[in-house]
Every structure is written in C-alpha cells, then in structure tokens.
Amino acid sequence: MPEDRDWEAYKVPPTRTPVSERTTSVPNPVTFIQTVFNYVIDAPVTFVREWIERQQAKNKFYYYHQKFRRVPDLSECLEGDYLCFFEAEAQWRRDRMVDQEIVEIIRERLGACKHREGPNQFQNCAKEMEQLAQVTKAYQDRYGDLGVHGNARTCLMKQKHRMMEERKAQASTSQ
Fold first, then answer.
1. Helix, strand, or coil here: 45?
2. Calpha distance 30→34 (Å, rounded)
3. Which long-range contacts (CB under 8 A, 24 or more apart) does 115-124 make?
4. What is the pLDDT of residues 47-99, one digit of tens each?
5. CA separation (Å) from 37 to 28, 41, 47, 50, 119?
C-alpha cells in the first residue's frame, strides 16, 4: 500500500464500542475490589510461593529411576539365610523385567525400521534383525522354558544344567 493514502478511499470503520466518559466522581467499585484483592490475597500468596520456590531451588531434587543396590546371587547365599533368598529372588525378578524391556525395545526398533524402510527392510534393517536375534537368544537361554512361575532357583538350576551339557559336549569333541 502506498505511503500517501487517500483517506477518503480507505475510511477507517467506526468502532462498535462507545468511548466511556466519566460523568461521576464516585470511584469505580470494580477497580477498588481488584486493588484490594491484589494487596490482601494475591500479593501474600505470590510472596510465599516465590519464597518456597527459592528454597527449593537451593536444594535441587532430580528424580530418576529408582536404583536398587545389587544383592548377592542365589548361589552366594548361605544355607538357611531366608532374607538373602528373598532379596536374590527380588533381584532376579527385576533383572527379568529389565531383560524383557530390552527385548521389547529392540523389537520396537526393528518394527520402526521395517515401517520406515518399506520394501528395502531386509537390506537396510539387517543390523536391527541381527541385534534382535542375539537379544532374544540370550533371553531364551536365560529365561526360556521357565514359564510364568519361574524363579531364581529354577533359573540357576537351568544355568547349571546348561553348563554341564556344554562341558560334556566339549569333552566329547576333544576326545
């Protein structure tokens, strides 16, 4: 639009809200109530909140995942130490849940790669497929065939039997 506007051609539309003109000397009650509210309620609350925020800023609390200390394995517990058995069982359950989540995350990554790559998924997602195969094999080696009611003791026995089979297979191949 040019600088030298023709005001007759581009008239400013009239405003719809009339300009209020004060005709009385009585103060507006709304302004009075807003001022009282600001000084009586809002200012103290704001002061207290800012003071609390300053105190909390001094002591920063960072929330991350809950960290548990590692407890001895079931094989390291003494005979009749039921508290150690319980802690080892709880640690095994946490480890199993972590391993399940790792498998699920790798599976989701592979699904996202397949979706992203489309028909070239076999060529471009080979690394993710290999990683998923390794992770699921490790999970199956450790937790497979335990079922829903598997516990640390049965997992330890499975590991012991697998190690014994590997030793027998190694001894038979060396002879």
1. helix
2. 6
3. none
4. 999 999 998 888 877 767 777 788 888 889 999 999 999 999 999 999 999 99
5. 15, 5, 14, 18, 66
